[in-house]
Amino acid sequence: MRGSVAHWIYYLLVFVLQVIVGNHFDGWAWLHFCFIPLILIAIPPTWDVRLSMVLAFGLGLAADLATGGVPGVNAGAAVILAAVKEPLFRALVSPDGQNPAWTPTVRSIGVWPYLKYTLATYAVYLSVYVIFDGFTLTPVLFILAKILLSVVVNVSLAALLSLFLPEKS
Known about the structure:
By secondary structure, this protein is mainly alpha-helical. The chain has one domain: Arp2/3 complex 21 kDa subunit ARPC3 (Orthogonal Bundle), CATH 1.10.1760. Helix content is 70%, strand content 0%. The longest helix has 23 residues, at 2-24.
């Protein structure tokens, strides 16, 4: 029980970090900081995908409203990520289906599998986010550069923050 409460406190703190960063840090049009995927990554892959998608929608919409962003951009990207995170996990981390119930962290699955999984999930999330957010006549190379830079920075931050995720007890 104590581990479960610690996880919910961790999720709340990561969400608060998303709101603070969303309200006070500007990526100079080249970078988007996001922590919503970190919460979705930390949810065990065995959760029902529909439940994950509903949670992702609520989380994304709450982040959009709390940061004054365009309503639906984080929500849309989070729902897409929730829909594909379990197949990504199976393909990149656990192709044989062993131990899918634990929360994926650097400590639980190792550095390389965690980085592969996190890179893929952030690439999906940020690609959808940037496309939804910048649905204009922005040059394609600028959009790709923004996605690449955002993925590199956010995966690094996610790996660091995953070290603080409490272990299951």
